[in-house]
Amino acid sequence: MQPTLVILAAGMASRYGSMKQTQSFGPSGETIMDYSIYDAVEAGFKKVVFIIREDFADNFKAIFEPKLKGKIETAYVYQSLSSFVGDIEIPADRVKPWGTAHAVLCCKGTVNEPFAVINADDFYGKDAFIKAYKFVVEKCDDRTMAVLGYELANTLSENGSVSRGVIATNDKNEMAGVTERLKIYRKEDKIVFEENDVLTELPESTKVSMNFFCFAPSYIEMCEREFHTFLEKNIHNLKAEFLIPTMADRFIKSGLGVIEMIPTSAKWFGVTYKEDAPIVQASIDALVKSGEYPASLWR
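The structure assignment produced for this chain is given below.
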C-alpha cells in the first residue's frame, strides 16, 4: 500500500491572506510547502493530503492544484472546531483550533495507509523525506512508528529563542519521551535553554522533534479514543490543545508500541520571527544555486 504525506495546513488560511506569508521563498514564487512536496515526490510519495479549513478550500486549491497536477495525487481534509466533538457543547468563546492531533484525527476515512505528517510552513530537507519514505514503506505498522530527530544546532533562529521538543531515547534508539524546552538560544559558543532564570547547556547534537512523524492508521484511531477524554477534561480551557507529541507519548506509555527515532542531518528552516524570512530565502537561494533544487520546481 502506497504511503501518504499529510500536511498540517489548517492554520495557514489567515497567513496566506497576509502579505508576509504570501511572499515567495523560491526564485519562481515557491512557498516552503512547495519544497516539502517536491522532496516528498522525489523520495517516492505519490499522494499528499492537505488538512485545511473548509472556508479557505477554493483559494487553497487555486494555489496548489495547477502546479501539482500530474506530479502527485492530492486530497483534502477539513478541520473545524465541531469535527469529532459529537454532542459536547463547544464554548461560544472557543476560537483556537483543537490542535495537531485533532487535525490528524480529521483524516479518519481519508488516510487508511501508513503516512508521514509534517507542518505546512517548515522546511525539512531532502534527507528527512528519503528516510521517512523508507520507514513507512518498510517498517511502519500498528506497533512501530517513528519520529524524525533533528540536530538541535540545525534548528535554531539567529533572531531570538525557540521552543523545541527534546527527544529522550532508550538504548534501542526508540523515543522514551519528549520534553518541551521553551527558551533555547545560542549564548556565545554554546546552546542553552533558560528555565526559571537558570541556564542549562544542551549539546549541539541533541535530537529534537520538528513535528515530522511517521504513523500507521491505528494512530488515527487512538486519537479518536483519546480526543473524547481530552474534551471531557479541557472543554472549558480555551487554550488547551490536543497535540501530536502528547498522543505519541501516550502511544508509548500505554504499551501500544514503539516510536523509533530516525536521526537526520538535514537543516531545518522556519519563519519563527519575521526577521527569519530573509534568512530562509537566502538559504533556499543557496540550495538552488548549488543545484539541490531547480530554479522552478514545477515547470
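Interim note for the steering committee: The longest helix spans residues 218-234. The chain has a mean pLDDT of 91.
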